[in-house]
From TrEMBL, chain A:
A Pfam family matched in the record: RNase_PH
Single Gene Ontology MF annotation: RNA binding
Primary gene name: Cre-exos-4.2
GO cellular component, one term: nuclear exosome (RNase complex)
Domain Exoribonuclease phosphorolytic: 69-184
Any one of the GO BP annotations: U4 snRNA 3'-end processing
Swiss-Prot/TrEMBL keywords: Membrane, Transmembrane, Transmembrane helix
Transmembrane parts of this sequence: 12-31
Protein's name according to its UniProt entry: CRE-EXOS-4.2 protein
From TrEMBL, chain B:
Biological source species: Caenorhabditis remanei (Caenorhabditis vulgaris)
Sequence ranges assigned to domain Exoribonuclease phosphorolytic in this UniProt record: 47-159
Encoding gene, per UniProt annotation: Cre-exos-8
Protein name: Ribosomal RNA-processing protein 43
Subcellular location: Cytoplasm; Nucleus, Nucleolus
UniProt key word RNA-binding: yes
Claim: Cytoplasm is one of the keywords in the record: yes
Protein family (similarity comment): Belongs to the RNase PH family.
Pfam families assigned: RNase_PH (PF01138)
């Protein structure tokens, strides 16, 4: 039996085996480094269809009357280090306002103070611009800007969560921050958000889900001691005849908030003492 | 000379006068802890918290998305820069906090799998989007940020997912086949909460001995005159997770002391977090 006859075959076999081992190692390295699956599918939880216990939610909505606000919490003076700060919470809408100044920035030299508003926590840029414009107009109307020539008053508004009525909540937070800062102003601003249903019913301070069936609404800001309005933000399709009663209803709701705001300011003064 | 003038023209001399007496300018002891206040579920999202400690107030909101199982990063962090926090610093803190997630110190990756009503894992994963808002900044941001993330994760509740897609079906999962079932919600299985403490090392050049003095959670005014600052993050079983040192430090025994203080503070935080949950 000639065993040497098989040598070239054995060489060939061992070469193949070596090559196979090499490829196996390469494959293992490749697999260990490569991603298992790459997917661009990413659906925010809020965009998914919901399966809810609907009965419970309906019960909650029915409990609140048309003139009642959502559970609210207002605080005048949140941070000791800031010049002025205020917090307002209506249901799940929460806003914090902080005021820095009045102080000179070395650039502003006019005979009156410059009021700047920075809005944080709102992603939609159009909404930021709208909110800032409404708030600047409402607040500039009450601050005695002529008493602070060459000074800048920075107001930083942080929307912690938005579940409807963010403008009225923000105005309430800023008026509390103004009261805390000691900046001279004409009076406290009370603000309310009211919507109108197709059947003519009003909803006071609705959440986003409660406002779904509304045809329009208004955010109304009002200085009670002057009896003057500083902000009317009307939206939706409201019949002309219904506008005046809606504004009057919103004014009444804003006035209803005044005792709560006064109480927060008085508590802040007591805490300082 | 009034103290305010001294404070303006010689801040180091002003601070060292107090530190020689063993107190900060506000009267607090050099190693006294400051109160840590936290509140959960106040800022929307699937989980949130507001933490206030040492003059820093931070809100943390967690939003969730559903994605297919992959090896992509499941957590992203965004620290919103403000007037008090520069964009560059925000990015630095962002990377630091992200590394804690990447190294699974907050939560393990396998615990981010979506569950159905019977707690069976599905071929879907939760992606968490963590947003930190700095509401006030008069000290070290990292201390409050780490606690805020821990508290927000502990508050996180995710709905069960109803997936209308058979296991044997090889077609891609569509958005319409996924539903969030809020009748059963799940809490996240977390690692033990982390605690971060920031320290300052002060050297009094006017004293006879140039000893390094350890300061717990110094204010920004004191940090400005410190030789070095050090942030220590301690995790489960009092193990060091991260140490971030800036400046010069010669006594390594101080690091041990920092870790012990942080571990002690972590135990208190964990206890109060458990009592809330």
């Amino acid at each position: 039996m000639n065993i040497f006859a098989n040598i070239p075959f054995m060489k060939y076999l061992s070469f193949l085996l070596l090559l196979f081992t090499f490829f196996v190692i390469l494959f293992i390295i490749f697999v260990s480094r490569m991603p298992t699956i790459r997917s661009n599918l990413s659906i925010p939880l809020t965009h998914l269809n919901r399966i809810d216990d609907v009965r419970m939610e309906t019960d909650d909505v029915e409990k609140r009357s048309a003139t009642a606000f959502r559970p609210l919490c207002v605080k005048c003076g949140v941070f000791g280090a800031q010049d002025g700060s205020g917090y307002a919470e209506f249901g799940n809408t929460r806003v914090l306002a902080q005021i820095t100044g009045p102080e000179g920035d070395g650039k502003w030299e006019e005979a009156y103070a410059k009021v700047t508003i920075t809005l944080k926590g709102v992603e939609n840029e159009t909404k930021v611009a709208e909110l800032r414009a409404d708030m600047t107009s409402s607040l500039s109307a009450v601050i005695f800007v002529n008493k602070y020539p060459g000074k800048v008053i920075d107001i930083e508004v942080t929307v912690l969560s938005d579940d409807g009525g963010v403008l009225s909540t923000a105005i309430t937070a800023v008026t509390l921050a103004l009261a805390h800062s000691g900046i001279e102003h004409m009076g406290l601003t009370a603000s309310a958000h009211v919507t109108l249903r197709q059947n003519g019913d009003y909803i006071t301070d609705p959440s986003t889900s409660e406002a779904e069936d509304a045809i329009g609404g208004v955010t109304f800001a009002f200085v009670p001691n002057l009896g003057q309005t500083t902000c009317v933000n009307l939206y939706g399709r409201i019949p002309l005849k219904a506008t005046s009663p809606l504004l009057e209803f919103a004014r009444q709701r804003a006035i209803a908030l005044v005792p709560a705001i006064h109480k927060a300011v008085v508590n802040s003064v007591k805490e300082r003492k | 000379m009034s103290s305010e003038v001294l404070r303006g023209i010689d801040p180091r001399g002003y601070v060292s006068t107090f530190i020689r007496e063993g107190v900060y300018p506000d009267g607090r002891g050099l190693l006294d802890e400051q109160k840590l206040v936290f509140k959960q579920g106040e800022c929307g999202g699937v989980g949130s918290s507001v933490v206030s400690t040492q003059g820093v107030t931070v809100s943390c909101t967690i939003e969730a998305s559903v994605s297919l199982v992959s090896d992509a990063t499941l957590v992203d962090i965004q620290i919103e820069s403000s007037q008090q926090l520069a964009e560059k610093d925000a990015e630095d803190y962002n990377n630091l906090l992200l590394s804690l997630f990447t190294n699974e110190h907050f939560i393990r990756r396998e615990n981010l799998r979506c569950l159905d009503t019977s707690e069976k894992t599905l071929p879907l994963e939760w992606q968490l989007h963590v947003t930190l808002k700095v509401l006030s900044l008069e000290g070290s941001l990292l201390d409050a940020a780490v606690c805020a993330i821990g508290a927000a994760l502990a508050d996180t509740k995710l709905p069960s997912i109803a997936l209308d897609h058979a296991d044997t079906d090889e077609s891609a999962i569509e958005k319409t086949q996924i539903q969030a079932d809020y009748r059963t919600v799940h809490k996240l299985s977390l690692e033990e909460p982390l605690m971060c403490c920031s320290f300052g090392i002060f050297v009094d050049s006017g004293a006879k001995k140039n000893d390094e003095i350890l300061l717990l959670t110094p204010t920004l005014e004191v940090i400005a005159v410190c030789r070095s600052t050090c942030s220590v993050v301690v995790g489960k079983n009092d193990l060091m997770v991260l140490i971030r040192e800036r400046g010069r430090l010669s006594q390594f025994s101080l690091i041990k002391k920092m870790c012990m203080i942080t571990a002690e503070r972590r135990r208190k935080f964990v206890e109060s977090l458990r009592s809330v949950v």
